[in-house]
Design goal:
The structure holds two protein chains of two kinds. By secondary structure, chain A is mainly beta. Chain A has two helices and eight strands. In chain A, strands 1, 2, 3, 4, 5, 6, 7 and 8 form an eight-stranded antiparallel sheet that branches. Chain B folds into two domains: about 45 residues; about 120 residues, Nickel-containing superoxide dismutase (Four Helix Bundle (Hemerythrin (Met), subunit A)). Chain B contains six helices and one strand; from the N terminus they run H-E-H-H-H-H-H. In chain B, helix 2 runs antiparallel to helix 3. The chains are: A mainly beta, B mainly alpha. At the A-B interface, strand 2, strand 5 and helix 2 of A face helix 1 and strand 1 of B. Strand 2 of chain A pairs parallel with strand 1 of chain B, so a sheet runs across the interface.
Chain lengths: ~130, ~180
Amino acid sequence: MIMRAEDDRSQNLPVPELTLWHFLSWCLGRRSRLRVVNRSMLPVLQPGDEVLIDPRAYGDCLPQVGDRVVALHPHQPGLRIIKCIAAVRDSECFLVGENPAQSSDSRSFGWVQVDLLQGKVVCRFGRGQV
Amino acid sequence: MGSPSGIQPVYKASLEMLNLKTLNSLEMLNSLATLVKTHFPAAAVSAHCDGPCGVYDPASARVTAEAVLSMTKKILALVPPAAGDVAAQVAYQNTMSRYVAVKEEQAQKTKEDLLILWTDYFKPVHLEKYPDLHDTFWKAAKLCSACKVEVSLQHAEELMAAVENIHTIFWATKEREVAFVKAS
């Protein structure tokens, strides 16, 4: 069964702002902090923006269409990428950037195994670039 | 259901205070996070794009392959001067050297442009649809080398045909029909 987003993106919805819960979770080591480089997530995330991810988000539940996730690139070992889930089938996700004109994603490298997901983006960390 | 007089304003004021406190807390939290972010940048995660511009086009390979074909024709058409005419010999050698240099350079550029398309643009999903993709690029790259080593009209024309084939595959992957227009 394939679940698919209507426009293959999370419709450029903003990433939630930092909350006390996520901040404390980060302090306790239950969230990871990552800095965005490159431009495939514009206009939602700019290069230099930081986000918190929940590495345990998919321990008990499956990835959902519209989730923003950090995954390992299927063909470039060690490269972590941040994308949106546009579709889910069995144990695979179709990942796309918010900015398709400047994104290398599942349109080129194909479906990504859920095992390669490293976490779900839960919020921004601090203010974006001014 | 109505509230007893006096309670509602107190409740409203409390809510406003709570909102204000929440707002202030979030502001503080964000300021703290921004401070951490500024002084201790996090590890990078790539909002990945292959090139800074994401622009690929086999047109550049077409132009250089066309130059290779043109130079090959010019070299083959260049008539050597009579044996005793020193000035004509010098002019001939100079022109021939220039033609060969340009052919060499343009064949190398063609090879580089093709390799970029092959290794950077084309992905495994394309290979599923075009199973002979690797063979196509490998043979095209070999033709570039042959055009450098030899002065072969046949190989130069085969290189053009290979580039046209790649052009067709490339635009098919983008679901666009783009004519293969030659400059000469």
